[in-house]
Amino acid sequence: MAEGFTQRHPTIGVVGPASVETTLQDAQDSLDVAVSIVPAGRDAPGSVEEFDCVVAAVTPESGSADRTDADTAASLTGVSNWVVQNATRDSAPPVVYVAPTEASIAEALEAGVTEYLPWELLAQSPTTVLKRAVTATEVQPTPDYRTIYDNVSEPLTLHDPETGELIHANQRLCELLKYDRAELISMQVGDYTASIDGYDQAAAMEVITSATESGTVGPIEWPLETADGEHVWVEATLTTVTIDDQELVLATATDVTDRRRQRRQFREISTHIDEVVYLARADLSEVLFINEAYADLFDQPVERLYDDPMAVLDAVHPEDREAYRSDLIAMSEHIREEESGPYTFSHRLRVGGETRWVEVRGYPSRGPGGAVDRIVGVIRDVTDTRRREREYEQIFNGVTTAIAVHDPDTGEMVDVNDSYVELFGYDYDTILQQGINDLSVPEEGYTDERARRLITDVGETEEDETVEWRIETAEGDNRLVEANLTVATVGGQRRVLSLMRDITEQKRREREYEQIFNGVNDAIAIFDPETLSFVSVNDSYHELVGCDDLERIRDLGIEGLSETEGGYTAERGKELIQTVARSGEPKTIEWKLAPPDEEQSWIEVTLATAEIGGEQRVLSIQRDITERKRREREFEQIFNGVTDVIGVYDPQTAELLDVNDTMCELLGYDRDTIIDMDPEEVTATALGFDADTIGEVVRDVAKSGDPARDIEWALRTASGDVVWLEVNATLTEIGGEQRVVTIARDVTGRRDREERVQVLNRVLRHNVRNDMDAVLGYTATIEEAAEDEVVREYAESVHDIANGLLELSGKARAASQMLQDNDDPENRRVGTVLESAVADLRESHDEATIQLSSAEAPAPADTAVFRLVLSELVENAVEHGGDSPEVEIKTTPSTANDETRITVRDDGPGIPDRVLTPFRADGESPFQHNHGIGLWLVNWGVRQLGGGIEFERPADGGTAVHLSLPNVLR
């Protein structure tokens, strides 16, 4: 019977074409094992559990001429789906998947098939396929590559054999190196290899290439570097594998960092102590290491023990020799148990005629897989009184950690090592006499009672505890230590060990970094207040000045990094540093940088003192304000470029802080003079203005946050002229400070024009009306008294002209009233006003036909102004429409422009162009004017309502006037 096959008769199930079953049955006679080959039902997954193995096959037969493409796809898909569904089941037997190389096998591999074989192998050597199936019944299924990568406890990687590129890494490697998978895969092996001579990307490629050529390389040890800079050693084995027809190199690694450290410590300890230290295989078949102390104690060269591990029995006392042998075997068996601990036995030696007692102690050493594969131990001479020193040497020697040994029940200190003595500066006996309280700082809570409670708690729970503890040395220095409390057996007694590490410097550095860096993202430079030179800078400062080299920055100094022509010199900078160092008060300034080969920039610098590394330093915390300075320059250009008069006030004191050039030009003073002047000096107090009022306005705006609008103010210029301003005030932020800004327009010219208009209106309304009333009286008398017909006709003409002038005066009065501001106008919807106004017009003009076609007209309007506009349009239509004029009024709401359109149309002769021309141009001129005021009233009224007006002469005659009024008040 061929080696590797069992006597049992496995049953092989076949999923796939019947030809596969026939082929395998034909090949079974060539096996040395009797097997049963039967078809497995593809549609009954539960039935596969009766088989020892299943061969699932997809062969090119599926694509033969007598099958359709649909049949081929169905066969391929059906078998593939069967594999995926069954291979993942815990109760499923091993599955050997046979498929053409062009078929996708990824899902089957991921599902966990035991083995993938190409169909060509089935065609050429069905016996080999059958042997693989039989072998699969004898071993556990091989995990799929997904499981290998994500579930195994050891780091795994896949590499391209040509380039060494990292194709995949499992989760364990990501956790070990502290990178996420995407970041790790983007790296070369050399990128995460520790910087140790002989280990780099080129060396890694040599190993990968060797694995490609020989099939397997290793195990080899390789140093890696984690994302946070720690070094980790792994033991790796590289093997070529094929996945999805792609040949790759699989690296299986084991973290041996602790083992290397232990091995190094082991060798260091073993070379410095008197005891015999050994390392042997767990079955004691080979001694891997034993120190030279063995030769002294056993009077045998170590080479003899390397050749024969049982040679040790030659030095054992004849009476103890058999017992020694039995204890060695018992120790080996004990060490290899699942939950094993140390094993100790003692026997006599007979060396040089002298009998000596030795204690042999063995400890289990677990390999990478977790199984005990080695024994590490100590053989000590326990004949003399050096028991304590030798016990402690096992624990203490080779370590720099300060160690104290405590009684777990009382907390009393019973022993300390040399590092502990060195840490405190007292001798051994003094330390034991003083105890914990005299070595600690009890006034800060580090008391003997607290220490004993911690020790006894650890002794009871056997759970390690790490605490920070403040101690006082013999020189009176307070230092902070980190103490790890753990339970151990020392000299056969249960003890609590306190392993101390001095973290004073570490904590100091942490405080320094917290003081400097926490909470700031700005560039930081540290200066020596004595030498005024750079001590250190952070990364942001390197970026700010465009220089990565601290020495280069030191060489350049403040002078070489600053814009000296603007006054930002080394002398000025050093003086600021000295001032802050002497006073201890922080100082904030603006500074202009000009590093070599970099653009100039503005920074805001805050200088403050700090203690760093026990030394007084001056910190320079810098923030780039180049953009802010640019905005300030733009603000200044706008501030002084506008034609409005601008003043800037302190919102608390109402003090004038700044004015723009326009105000200087208007008042005839320079900026400093205006700012320094008493407000009374520029306020036109003779006209009733109080200079305190502007201060009240500033404070009210600052308090409420609401702007103040259209305040009239009169100022007196340097030449004595009075200028009128219309002032708006608002609260805003300038340069990071709250300010009240007043923006004013010179309305002196407008006031003059309004004053002239008022005078002319008064003359037109009162003087002309009174005179025309007198003219009407005289002409009436003349008409009655005159006997001459010609005189009466002249009197009648004069009477008509006077009436016209009175009507014109009335319209001028209406226009004046309309154009005056009305603080509380009556606003109603146009549709409602139209109905009322048209009713009144029909009553006053019964000779005319006035039609109203009114749709919904939502536009709101000042009722008085709109009625005046409508009346003027209708009266104009009636006046020029003949004996029976017809007037049509129509409204159309326009949703597109959010306006309401009102059209007034008559059937008259139409308004002549000479009358409409002034409304199409820029107003009247000496050679182009309207004969009346009616259309001007309409034009002014529509504009006051926020609308527009258009005149049209339709082809069929008459005049159409279109008004457009907004649907929302403006």
Protein topology:
Blueprint: E1 11-15, H1 18-27, E2 36-39, E3 53-57, H2 69-87, E4 95-99, H3 106-111, E5 115-118, H4 119-124, H5 126-136, H6 145-151, E6 156-159, E7 166-169, H7 171-177, H8 181-185, H9 201-214, E8 216-225, E9 231-243, E10 246-255, H10 257-272, E11 276-281, E12 287-290, H11 293-298, H12 302-307, H13 321-335, E13 343-351, E14 354-366, E15 372-381, H14 387-396, E16 402-406, E17 413-416, H15 418-424, H16 428-439, H17 448-461, E18 465-472, E19 478-490, E20 493-502, H18 504-517, E21 523-527, E22 534-537, H19 539-545, H20 550-561, H21 570-583, E23 587-593, E24 601-612, E25 615-624, H22 626-641, E26 645-649, E27 656-659, H23 661-667, H24 671-676, H25 679-682, H26 691-704, E28 708-716, E29 722-734, E30 737-746, H27 748-785, H28 789-819, E31 827-829, H29 830-844, E32 849-854, E33 860-862, H30 863-879, E34 886-894, E35 899-906, H31 913-920, H32 934-944, E36 948-952, E37 959-966
Parallel strand pairs: 1-2, 1-3, 3-4, 4-5, 32-34
Antiparallel strand pairs: 6-7, 6-10, 8-9, 9-10, 11-12, 11-15, 13-14, 14-15, 16-17, 16-20, 18-19, 19-20, 21-22, 21-25, 23-24, 24-25, 26-27, 26-30, 28-29, 29-30, 31-33, 34-35, 35-37, 36-37
Would you mind describing this structure in some detail?
Strand 26 and strand 27 (656-659) form a beta hairpin. The chain contains 32 helices and 37 strands. Residues 1-7, 62-74 and 923-931 have low confidence and may be disordered. Helix 27 runs antiparallel to helix 28 (789-819), helix 28 runs parallel beside helix 32 and helix 29 (830-844) crosses helix 30 (863-879). 40% of the residues lie in helices and 28% in strands. It has 970 residues and is of the alpha+beta class. The strands form eight sheets. Strands 2-1-3-4-5 form a five-stranded parallel beta sheet, with helices on both faces. A five-stranded antiparallel beta sheet has the order 7-6-10-9-8, sandwiched between helices. The protein is elongated.
